[in-house]
Amino acid sequence: MDLDIMNMFVIAGGTLAIPILAFFASLYLWPAALIRVYYWYWRRALGLQVRYASQGNYRFCYSCRGKPGNKPSILMLHGFSAHKDMWLSIAKFLPKNLHLICIDMPGHEGTTRTCADDYSIDGQVKRIHQFVESVKLNRKPFHLVGTSMGGHVAGVYAARFSSDVHSLTLICPAGLEYPNESKFVKQLRELEKTQDVYSIPLIPSTPEEMEDMLKLCSYVRFKIPQQILQGLVDVRIPHNDFYRELFLEIVGEKSRHTLQENMHKISVPTQVIWGKQDQVNLPSFFIVFMKFHP
Known about the structure:
Its EC number is 3.1.1.23. This protein is an alpha/beta fold.
């Protein structure tokens, strides 16, 4: 009897050890794959499904939950070099009966990658409007949310397609000329002079550069294991040439201040959110915004 109990514990221990060993093997051998599994798991847990919509030869990738109802649908636009899954931490706080759509911005993740014309702010606005029409999201005005580059695009979209938009949320949006330049912007001006596209702080190629980027973009400091940093880099490296092309396009003269140039056209109720410690887009955005919306 004692031997049977001992065998039972050995079998149970072995059964538990297998997934634990598999986890650590994945962490050290395939950290990028583990990160993808993490996003897949949280999408399923939150009830989000990945779908595609086409407009001619162009394909949009997005995740969604719920169906259009009495309340406005929500369309969320992510920032530079991110993807639709960056909104998962927000989606878990939103009521599940709301119709929610998180799209991969032009050229990002599962959405078609084409040419520089689509990467300018004007080009991205046109593509997002194509997506809205392809899924018939504008049958009723929807709530539009954008952060950073996505905030830049969202603001310009609301200015140009006001009949589509019920209300607008801009989270630390880019696209404005600030009264004071951040250290980040000053660094970009130096890069503009040297044309050193391999030193852009938002496009890391090593775990160390990834850690520096996270410090730049996050006020909360936390220690991330080296293998996770490596996994984050491994996921991004195949796309870094695209990120460089996109970055040069959105900070160029054609796109740099497109939001500011269109701010006076925004007529829908607008919520602005920013961090007091933001090192990329300074909170002085509020001063600029109030000039157009007192």
